[in-house]
Amino acid sequence: MDCLNKRYSKIVFLTGAGVSAASELPTYRGSDGLWTDPETARLATAEVFEQDPQGAWRFWSKFREQCLQAKPNPAHLALSDWSRALVEGQSLTLVTQNIDGLHQRAGSPDVLELHGSIFRTRCSKYDCTLEPFEERQSSCSEVPHCPQCCSPLRPDIVLFGESLPPKADWLSKKALRDCDLFIAVGTSGSVSPASGFVHSAKFVGAKTILVNLEPMHPFNPAFEVELLGRAENLLPRLQFEFFFKQTMIDTSLPPANVHQEQFARERFDITKSPDEQAARYGHLELLGSPDQYRYSDQKFDAWIHRYYRVICTPQYLRICRLEYLTQAEIEEVENDDGF
């Protein structure tokens, strides 16, 4: 894709519903999005929750159950891997409009949830002192009530007509003031205030990239690059490009060593994809030093570092194995490597 051309240190991601589409969760504003149903859109407003808490709770309880059954996909896993692979002096801030909790389940730390979480419940009374609490169970039969003030409880999410959580709003804007790379993924770019994030990033001179299934209409010129496709396909590729270029200019790596390169070439076949090689030959005894070296062949260097990013992430490795191996082979290698 060749979108990244320098070393970036302050990365900000903004994700929307398109990131979770491959996890079989509906988007909001697409052709089959939730808001295309007038009744669904009506139940997502603060005013209607006050008027019909039973109907709103029934709808959001059903969505909570959908989110509970969903699993992180390669887009979520790529972002989680990305945050863990950064070197000293680099940071990644993940801001999401999603309420499904899949980024956290994929392992991403300190996710800023602009629209709250479907898995938290709070009191509907503004000045109630009940702290929001985690809740994985759903109840459609009746509206639960606050144990302190007896007001209806509700999911801790931002409904239409409500303000963003102050802390998440402030921290996301703080990250944007310092960023040098801003990537929006799976979002229509039409919901304020997140729709203005790219302008903030552009103002401070950051590289700005949009990753989305469909072109933005009208296109926002604040984005320098628009990558069209599924998030679960494009994010791992973008991650590969980022770390390939970062690795090639990482002065902490030692110079290329001919003996180390010969040692690595005996064990790896770069005619396969890194994912396929990792799926078929990924065993714990291979982990260790080869990914800490630079190689004279840049293609081989990129391949070997990508391989180790796959093999060091067991959850992503399992997805690779499901694609490339038979069930018997999966059982054999997983018994062997201890994952």
Properties at a glance:
339 residues, six-stranded parallel sheet, alpha/beta, 13 helices
Summarize the structure.
The chain is an alpha/beta fold and 339 residues long. The protein has 13 helices and nine strands.
How are the SSEs placed, and which strands pair?
Layout (H helix, E strand, L loop, with lengths): L9 E6 L22 H6 L2 H6 L1 H17 L4 H12 L5 E6 L5 H5 L5 E2 L2 E8 L9 E2 L18 E5 L8 H13 L2 E5 L11 H7 L3 E6 L12 E4 L2 H18 L9 H8 L8 H8 L16 H14 L2 H11 L2 H11 L2
Parallel strand pairs: 1-2, 1-7, 2-3, 7-8, 8-9
Antiparallel strand pairs: 4-5, 4-6
The chain-level structural class is alpha/beta
**What is the helix fraction of residues, given as a range?**
40-55%
Fraction in beta strands: 5-15%
As a whole number of angstroms, the C-alpha radius of gyration is: 22 Å
For the biggest β-sheet, the strand order reads 3-2-1-7-8-9
Count of individual beta strands: 9
Note the gap between the termini: 33 Å
Run of helices and strands: EHHHHEHEEEEHEHEEHHHHHH
Shape: globular
pLDDT averaged over residues: 86
The parts where pLDDT drops under 50 for at least 5 residues are none
Largest sheet: 6 strands, parallel
- Tally of DSSP helical segments: 13
Describe the structure.
- The protein has helices at residues 38-43, 46-51, 53-69, 74-85, 102-106, 166-178, 197-203, 231-248, 258-265, 274-281, 298-311, 314-324, 327-337, and strands spanning 10-15, 91-96, 112-113, 116-123, 133-134, 153-157, 181-185, 207-212, 225-228.
- Helix 8 (231-248) packs across helix 11, helix 10 packs across helix 11 (298-311) and helix 10 (274-281) crosses helix 12.
- The two termini are 33 Å apart.
- Strand 7 (181-185), helix 7 (197-203) and strand 8 form a beta-alpha-beta unit.
- It is α/β, with parallel strands linked by helices and 339 residues long.
- A six-stranded parallel sheet has the order 3-2-1-7-8-9, with helices on both faces. The chain has a three-stranded antiparallel sheet with strand order 5-4-6.
- The longest helix has 18 residues, at 231-248.
- The chain has a domain at 253-337.
- 40% of the residues lie in helices and 13% in strands.
